[in-house]
Amino acid sequence: MLKLCILGGGFIGRFYAESLIGRRGKDVVQVVYARREETAKRFAEDYAVPHFTTDMEEAIGHPETDLVIIALPNYLHEEAVMRCVAHKKGVLCTKPLGRTAEEALRMTQACEDSGIFAGYLEDLCYTPKFLKAVKSVESGAIGRVLWAKSRETHPGPHSDWFWDLEKAGGGAILDLGCHCVEISRNFIGKEVLPVEVMCWADTQVKPIEAEDHAIGLVKYENGAIGQFEVSWTFRGGMDLRDEVMGTEGTVWINSFLRTGFEMFSSGQGADYVAEKAETSSGWLFPVGDEAHELGYPTMFVDMFEAYEKGTQPRETFYDGYVVNAILDAAYKSAKTKLWEPVQLPVWRGKRGLTKPSVYTEFDADHWLIKKEILPNGDHKTILKHKTTGEVSTR
Ligand SMILES: NC(=O)c1ccc[n+]([C@@H]2O[C@H](COP(=O)([O-])OP(=O)(O)OC[C@H]3O[C@@H](n4cnc5c(N)ncnc54)[C@H](O)[C@@H]3O)[C@@H](O)[C@H]2O)c1
């Protein structure tokens, strides 16, 4: 049984608590820290947590704390991680790991140097659909991955600090792009070096300094391309979609806005529908078990098993740092309007990968471009001569 301490009694802290308790699991939340006493007390009452405090140091050092879960605003992640290091307590940190790669690398190295367990809580890389899709891709079901696109858009976050550039460290790119980038890395292969990024970002709607909408391309060393589409101005709910294209197939995943549950209501008895749903009348798209659809329970199982076995979880602080480095390049590109290199002072994956040839030979003289059956039943084979380059049809 693990005794957990949650730092932060807000939106994600409560999602984590919902995922950890009430599922007949053996792990318990023993300590909660929040900035305000009323938040900590309410959280403790709602989730039967025996100890609550407004003192972060006390929560981390508490004798009932085995493992700390950081669910705090982005600008407090580093401070909280360093306190865990000082107390030699294992730590799990929500996304994004840092506001920048520099912060994330400091956290990663501090945990590794002190030997404490550290896990990156990237829930969207743990949804049941995602895990199965990654397994299929790894087994070669769609061939070589060429393009991995991930989209997260919604009408904007729920707390003031997200909208403050200094506290959040960025806008939609950092808040939502961190999910998308890590999703693409999982499909393309985490060992493949992200080389450079091109990004468009703008503040189209909200009165804020940060970007509320962005689209980015991440070029990988093996020729694959990652794409992220993020927005805090999207209307109509929370849209989480992934699309992966390979040489032999395709994967489409819709993780939230269409999970197979559709309902119509005139609005009578209006109630909560789903995260950031925006409306409770008309045709609605509720989500059965939101925590499960978003990957939280599976994520904690992986984290706790790794902690107990002394192994690494699927998502580590090092992954969080690579994600931050890609997003730093995206921010730079949005300003310079150029492809910007991804700066990775520490890189543990492969180097020197090239784009493999996937040409199909038709005969000794020709490459096959395409076979087609036309509406009139005709069969066509389009070929390219290997030496002259002439394109012909048989
Ligand atoms: N899918 C996900 O994994 C996911 C989803 C939402 C948020 N998050 C992340 O979780 C972290 C917290 O986000 P949230 O949505 O729970 O925010 P929130 O504002 O709802 O809650 C933050 C909590 O932190 C505590 N806190 C301590 N010091 C604070 C301070 N100085 N200012 C504000 N709060 C302070 C409070 O208890 C507060 O309730 C962020 O890093 C965010 O990116 C992750």
TrEMBL record:
Domain annotation Gfo/Idh/MocA-like oxidoreductase N-terminal: ranges: 3-115
Gene Ontology molecular function, alphabetical: nucleotide binding; oxidoreductase activity
Pfam families: GFO_IDH_MocA, GFO_IDH_MocA_C3
Keyword field contains Oxidoreductase: yes
GO cellular component, one term: cytoplasm
Domain of life: Bacteria
Keywords: Oxidoreductase
Biological process according to GO: NADPH regeneration
Domain GFO/IDH/MocA-like oxidoreductase: 130-251
Family named by the database record: Belongs to the Gfo/Idh/MocA family.
Entry-linked PANTHER family: BINDING ROSSMANN FOLD OXIDOREDUCTASE, PUTATIVE (AFU_ORTHOLOGUE AFUA_2G10240)-RELATED, NAD(P)-BINDING ROSSMANN-FOLD SUPERFAMILY PROTEIN-RELATED
Protein's name according to its UniProt entry: Gfo/Idh/MocA family oxidoreductase
